Amino acid sequence: MAGQHLRIHGLFQKYFLVLFLAVVMPLTTNGLSEAWFGYRDQRTRLEQLLGVEARSAGAKIQGFVDGITDQLGWLVQLPWTGEPDERRRIDALRLLRQVPAIVSLTLIDGNGRERLYVSRIGLNRNESRVDRSADVAVAGARSAGLWYSKVNYYRDSEPYMTIAMAGNRPSVGVVVAEVNLKLIWDVIAAIKIGQTGYAFVLDELGRLVAHPDISLVLRGADETTLAPFREVWEAVRRAGADVATSRNASGIAVAAAAAPVTGPHWTVVIEQPLSEAFRPIYAALWRTVGFLLVGVAIAGLMAYALASRMIKPIHLLEEGTERIGAGQFGHRIDIRTGDELQRLAESFNAMAAGLAESQERQERIAKLKRFLAPQVAELVDRTGDDDVLEGRRTEVVTVFCDLRGFTAFSARATPEEVMFVLSEYYDALGQIITRYAATLTSFSGDGLMLLINAPVSVAEPALRAVDLAVEMQMSVQKLIVGWQERGYRIGFGMGLAMGPATVGRIGYESRFDYTAIGSVVNLAARLCASASDREILADATVAEAVKDKHQVHPIGMRLMKGYDEAFLVYRVAFAERPEAS
Predict the structure, then answer these.
(1) Whether residue 396 is found in the same domain as residue 495
(2) What residues have CB less than 8 Å from 211, skipping those under 6 apart?
(3) Same domain? 539 vs 444
(4) Where is this protein localized, as stated in its record (predicted)?
């Protein structure tokens, strides 16, 4: 009995208290820190979500406006003559049927004379020849090409806006459209944020342009109605990148974000009740408390069991070392004795975590290299996240290349011959692309698209791109000599262009690619399509940047598909045709 009493009130109490506190204190600290950082992470995700929703809503409103301007563009394509134009009248009437938001259209010729007026609510006029050149809308369209008026309220109720568009030549004149903005309701009513959130649109003066409750819009510029919406708008502007909190017209606390609508200078504001927006945050906090309570209970049970069976840590250490030695790096030795045995177990756990992290990093880089260029994969892993792949605007050199006559060759050649040619082709180009740290954004069949200066910035990107192109041409031309000996009639052409582009990742959840979007990409593709065998064609920007290092020769103006004006094209000179290697 004395021995049992000593065990309960001696070693048992000692080990129970030490083990219990050794587990509970770190667990409590970790739980509190996880709760705090979880709250911050959830709030950050909420900011990102609201930002995405705001931009999406802005894109939808922008699409409504752009849809109208795109339709108006068809009315300013051809120059006016002195005779009445019945076809334009028919086109204008057809446009009124196709776009219900347009209330009236006024077509003005290159001399500023009104030639046609059609309206849903007024009398049509044809060939009135009234001088409209002094109108604000006409002057604004001639100056800027596309002009938007401020929002005005018809009979202090329905919001209207005037849009004026000039043609690409003075002789085609100007079209002026009166637009009933009440019809944006169909767009704004379809925008839902969560279960109860919604969006509304304000103009640059803070007046309500669109709202799911159209009765609020029809109140016009009533200050009492507009005050709550302006308050939310001001809260978003003050918050900047953070989540803005305010109270809506119903007095409900809301989280809000905003996105601009270019052109008419509107702002799309989305709001969501805080009770709904922060619901995941509150749920996460309660889960953390629950896990903490469960962890404390489990710690007490484990401390009692470990104190009762002193030999158990030894067995756990033995088993743990065997499993870690067998390569099960995810296994953790759970010993809470508070003494050297626990520290030894923690050392094994740290070692296993390090091995697991190293293995995970190798697998992550290998996976990234399946879809990204090697330097992009290394950059993502080095920074610890993929923010470097997010969309941004930067100066890039775009390089396109493909084989000439490959389609005809692949149609008559055997599959083995086709794969042989492609294998040699990509083996040769792949080594050069890697050496020059170019980003391979896409390849299809025999065509490649490369980026220089994104996402990794380089010095003298144009010179590097030209050096890359020359080496690629030389390498492929050596292959072509061998292919010609086999009877394959294949050539190789390239196109380079330099300019600003939007670069970033694009795709869906399980697959992303890194790419560039912009006019420079289209221009490089068109130059590549225009290039003959052994030709490297470049635009004026690339030619100007490398003229002191490479021989570039202008070959005249060329009109590229998809462009309204011709471009001066340059040919990059390189060595004569090589012998077969």
Answers:
(1) yes
(2) 185, 188, 200, 201, 217, 229
(3) yes
(4) Cell membrane
Highest mean pLDDT among 89-93, 369-373, 375-379: 89-93
**In a shared domain, residues 295 and 431:** no
337 and 387 belong to one structural domain: no
Helices (H), 243-339: 274-277, 279-308, 312-325
- Angstrom CA distances, 317 to 303, 321, 327, 470, stand at 17, 6, 16, 62
Region of poorest pLDDT, from 275-284, 386-395, 432-441, 450-459: 275-284
Same domain, 377 and 525: yes
Provide the token pair at 456. 């990794």
Query: Is position 490 within any domain?
Result: yes
CATH code: domain of residue 232: 3.30.450.20
Strands 174-180 and 158-166 come out as antiparallel
Q: Is the dihedral of CA 314, 318, 321, 323 positive or negative?
A: negative
The Cα 441–Cα 429 span in angstroms is: 14
pLDDT, tens digit, 9 for 90 and up, residues 333-373: 777 767 776 777 778 778 777 777 776 666 666 555 544 55
Contacts of 528 (CB under 8 A, 6+ apart): 400, 401, 402, 447, 493, 494, 495, 537
Q: What is the rounded distance in angstroms from the CA atom of residue 341 to the CA atom of residue 312? A: 11
Query: Could you tell me the residue range of the domain that residue 323 belongs to?
Result: 286-370
The neighbour count for residue 542, using CB atoms within 10 Å, is: 31
Dist. CA 394–CA 503, nearest whole Å: 7
Contact (CB, 8 A) for 226 and 207: yes
Domain end position, chosen among 279, 297, 332? 279
Task: Based on the fold, state whether residues 225 and 346 are members of the same structural domain.
Answer: no
DSSP string, 149-217: PPPEEETTTEEEEEEEEE-SSGGG-EEEEEEEGGGGHHHHHT--BTTTBEEEEE-TTS-EEE-SSHHHH
Report the CATH number at residue 431.
Answer: 3.30.70.1230
**Same domain assignment for residues 566 and 454:** yes
Q: Which residues are 269's β-sheet partners?
A: 200, 258
Q: Burial-class residue 123 by CB neighbours within 10 Å (0-12, 13-18, 19+).
A: exposed
Domain count, the chain: 3
Hunting for tokens 């030389």 — which residue is that? 474
Tokens of 194: 């969560």
State if pTM tops 0.85.
no
Residue that the structure tokens 């219900």 belong to: 100
